[in-house]
Design goal:
It contains 12 helices and 31 strands. By secondary structure, it is of the alpha+beta class. It starts with 9 loop residues before the first strand and ends with a strand.
C-alpha cells in the first residue's frame, strides 16, 4: 500500500482512506492522490483502456477506511471525451457493502468542467459524505454489469431446463473467457435450426406436415465494455423471450433468436471502456475480423452467415445494443437502403419500438451510409449480408427527454423494462404486422406498415439528400369504427389526384390498414412498391412543392402554406391544392377526420422523382 503523494493503482491516499481500482472485476482507477487535507480533496485518475491510451471514460473503484461522517471531494481526472452527460445532470453511481444497491448521486453536487489547476483537463468533481466507518463504498461511472454476473444469470436460465432455450459456447476470447450463444425459439424451431446447422434435411412439422419458413434474428450487446446499460436491456429482453407471456410464446413460434449477450468479455472483465484485451475497438473490426485478434466478432459473423442460404430459416435482422454517453433517450441507427421503396421496411421496426417504449425517440433515429462507420457491425454486416436489416440500438446512460423537459434518471430496472418493451416491439413487428400481411389485401393493395404508426409518428433524420424525412401528426386516441368503403375510396382519390399530377400511376400507391394496439384503426395510403413505373416527369411538367417535411405537430417545417380544413377533415395544403380539394371534400362527406402524411422526393436536376400524397384518416364514429 502506498501513501498519499504517490500515485498507486491500489493503495492508501491519505490517513486511513484506502482506494482500490484494480483487484476486482470491471475495476478501473489508475491513481489516487491527496491534494488537500482541510477540506479533504483527492485527485483520482482514470486508467486508459488496455494497450490503448485514446479511451478514458469508465471508472469503478472502492474506498474503505473512512470515518463516520467524513466529508471529501473527489476529482476524477483524465477524461478523453469533451462532451458528457455529466454537464446536463447525470451523476455517477454509488453503493456500499451495507447498502448493496446502486444509487445515482444528486445532480446538484456534480460538476464537469475544464480545470485550470489540472492543465485544462476535463474534470468530474463531486463531494461525498461517508455515513459509516465499517463499510466499503463503491463508485462507478454507470451501473456495473460484470462478466461473472452474466454467467450466473445464464446458469440460472439454463437450470430452468426450458424446452425453448439452448446455450452453447460459440468461441473463447483471447483470454479464454466464454462467448455465449443463446438460441431461443419453439422446440420445433430448435429442431429445425439444429438440422440446418448440421447440414441435414429438416423433418416435417407434425402440426401441418410442412416446415414453414422462420425468421432468424441475431441480437448482441457489450461490444463496448463500458456501455453497461445495454446489458441491463439485454437482461430484460432475455427475461421476456424466456417468459410465459402470451406474446413471447407467439414470438417464439415465428422466429428463431440468436443472442450473444456479451461480445467483449475480456474488455468487460478488465474494466475497459471501448477496447478488448489487446487495445482493439471490436466495433471497427466487423468488415475483416481475424480469429487471432477478434475471435468473438469473427465467430458471430460466421454464425450469422450460416442463415443466408436457407429458404426455411431466413436471417432478417441483426440488432446490436449500445449505450450512449452524450445523448438522451433511446434511438436507432440504421442503413439507408439503395432502393427508396425499401425505406418503409427499414423503418418498420423503429416505428414499432416507438409505440411500446416511452423512452424511445423517433426524432433521434438516423438512417445513413456514413463512410466513417464502415467497420461497424451495422455497416459491415449490411454489405456482407445483403437484404438483412442491421440496426444499432442506443440507450442513454442518463435519461429520456422531450424538448427541454427531462424525465427521471434511468435505473437498472428502467433498462430492464426497456428490454421487455423491445420484446413487445419485436412481437408487433414479426407477429402483428406479418399477420396483417398474411391476412390479404384492402382495395386491391397489399397490407403494410406497423400497428400504431399514426399514434407514434415523429420525424426521423435521413442523412441522404435530397431525400427528406417523413413525418405525420400523431392521431387522436379516440375510439373508431372499421373504415368504410367510402373512406377507402376517398383516400384512394387523394392518392390518385397526386399521382396524376406529379407522375406515376395509382398502382404504385398501396392502401394499407394499420391496426393500433389500443384497438383503433386508421387508413394510410402509402407507397407499396407494388409495380415499377416511370418516376420522372417530362420536361415542362408540374413540379411538387419544395417543402415536404411535416413536423410532429402537423405544421410544415419550412412552409407557411396554411392547412385545408373541411369540416371534420384537415388536409395539409402543401400537396393538396386546386383540384385536390375535391378529394378533400370527398373525405369530409364520408365523415372522416385526420391529417396528411407526405413524402416528397426530388431529383438533383429539379425534376420530381415521386410523390406520395398519403392521407391518414381516422374513422369518425
Amino acid at each position: 500500500m502506498a501513501r498519499a503523494g504517490d500515485e498507486p493503482a491500489s493503495g492508501e491516499a491519505g490517513p486511513g482512506l484506502v482506494f482500490d481500482g484494480s483487484s476486482f472485476e470491471c475495476a478501473n482507477l489508475a491513481s489516487a492522490k491527496l491534494v488537500s487535507a482541510h477540506p479533504a480533496e483527492y485527485d483520482l485518475r482514470i486508467r486508459p483502456d488496455t494497450l490503448n491510451t485514446r479511451h478514458r471514460v469508465w471508472f469503478y473503484f472502492s474506498v474503505r477506511g473512512a470515518r463516520a461522517g467524513q466529508k471529501v471531494v473527489f476529482n476524477i481526472l483524465g477524461y478523453s471525451k469533451t462532451k458528457s452527460l455529466f454537464r446536463v445532470g447525470m451523476g455517477p453511481v454509488v453503493c456500499s457493502s451495507g447498502r448493496p444497491y446502486w444509487e445515482r448521486m444528486p445532480p446538484q453536487s456534480i460538476y464537469y468542467y475544464r480545470s485550470p489547476r489540472h492543465n485544462r483537463e476535463y474534470v468530474l468533481s463531486f463531494p461525498f459524505c461517508f455515513e459509516r466507518a465499517d463499510e466499503t463504498y463503491y463508485f462507478s461511472y454507470c451501473f456495473p454489469y460484470s462478466y461473472s454476473y452474466l454467467q450466473r444469470f445464464l446458469c440460472a436460465l439454463e437450470q430452468r431446463a426450458m424446452p425453448f432455450f439452448q446455450r452453447e459456447i460459440l468461441c473463447c476470447s483471447l483470454q479464454g473467457r466464454k462467448l455465449d450463444l443463446l438460441t431461443i425459439s419453439s422446440p420445433a424451431n430448435l429442431r429445425l435450426d439444429a438440422a440446418l446447422r448440421a447440414g441435414q434435411p429438416p423433418g416435417p412439422d407434425a402440426s401441418c406436415g410442412v416446415v414453414p419458413p422462420r425468421s432468424v434474428i441475431f441480437i448482441s450487446a457489450r461490444v463496448h465494455p463500458g456501455e453497461t446499460p445495454c446489458s441491463f436491456v439485454m437482461h430484460g429482453l432475455l427475461l421476456f423471450l424466456t417468459s410465459d407471456h402470451p406474446r413471447a410464446r407467439e414470438l417464439r413460434e415465428v422466429a428463431i433468436f440468436k443472442v450473444v449477450p456479451m461480445l467483449n468479455p475480456d474488455g468487460v472483465f478488465l474494466g475497459n471502456y471501448r477496447c478488448n484485451s489487446i487495445g482493439l475497438d471490436l466495433n471497427r473490426m466487423w468488415h475483416a475480423p481475424l480469429p487471432d485478434t477478434a475471435p468473438t466478432i469473427h465467430s458471430m459473423r460466421q454464425s450469422a452467415q450460416q442463415y443466408t442460404q436457407h429458404p426455411l430459416c431466413r436471417l432478417e435482422m441483426i440488432l446490436d445494443m449500445h449505450a450512449h454517453s452524450t445523448c438522451m433517450n433511446c434511438f436507432i441507427f440504421a442503413n439507408m437502403p439503395d432502393d427508396p421503396r425499401q425505406m418503409d421496411d427499414v423503418a418498420s421496426f423503429p416505428r414499432s419500438l416507438g409505440t411500446h417504449a416511452a423512452a424511445f425517440a423517433l426524432t433521434g433515429c438516423k438512417f445513413d451510409t456514413d463512410p466513417s462507420k464502415v467497420g461497424t457491425g451495422r455497416r459491415a454486416l449490411s454489405v456482407a449480408l445483403p437484404g438483412v436489416h442491421c440496426y444499432t440500438l442506443e440507450v442513454s446512460m442518463f435519461c429520456a427527454s422531450q424538448g427541454n423537459a427531462r424525465g427521471e434518471a434511468f435505473l437498472p430496472a428502467s433498462y430492464t423494462e426497456m428490454g421487455h418493451q423491445i420484446g413487445l416491439a419485436l412481437h408487433e413487428h414479426y407477429c402483428s404486422v406479418r399477420g396483417h400481411l398474411a391476412a390479404g389485401s384492402l382495395g386491391g393493395a397489399s397490407l403494410q406498415g406497423a400497428p400504431g404508426v399514426a399514434q407514434g409518428a415523429r420525424q426521423m433524420r435521413i442523412n441522404r439528400p435530397p431525400q427528406r424525412a417523413l413525418a405525420g401528426r400523431a392521431m387522436s386516441a379516440a375510439p373508431s369504427t372499421t373504415p368504410t368503403t367510402a373512406a377507402t375510396a376517398a383516400v384512394a382519390a387523394v392518392a390518385a389526384v397526386a399521382a396524376s399530377r406529379y407522375g406515376g400511376t395509382i398502382g404504385r400507391w398501396g392502401l394499407a390498414a394499420e391496426y393500433c394496439a389500443t384497438g383503433h384503426s386508421t387508413l394510410h395510403a402509402q407507397h407499396s412498391g407494388a409495380t415499377s413505373v416511370e418516376k420522372t416527369r417530362a420536361s415542362g411538367g408540374s413540379v411538387p412543392p419544395k417543402s415536404a417535411v411535416v413536423r410532429s405537430d402537423g405544421a410544415h417545417a419550412s412552409s407557411a402554406r396554411p392547412s385545408l380544413s373541411t369540416g371534420g377533415m384537415t388536409v395539409c395544403a402543401t400537396v393538396l391544392d386546386g383540384a385536390e380539394r375535391e378529394a378533400a371534400h370527398t373525405l369530409r362527406v364520408s365523415g372522416l377526420r385526420g391529417a396528411d402524411n407526405t413524402l416528397l422526393r426530388r431529383s438533383s436536376k429539379g425534376r420530381a422523382a415521386a410523390v406520395a400524397a398519403a392521407a391518414v384518416v381516422e374513422a369518425h364514429h
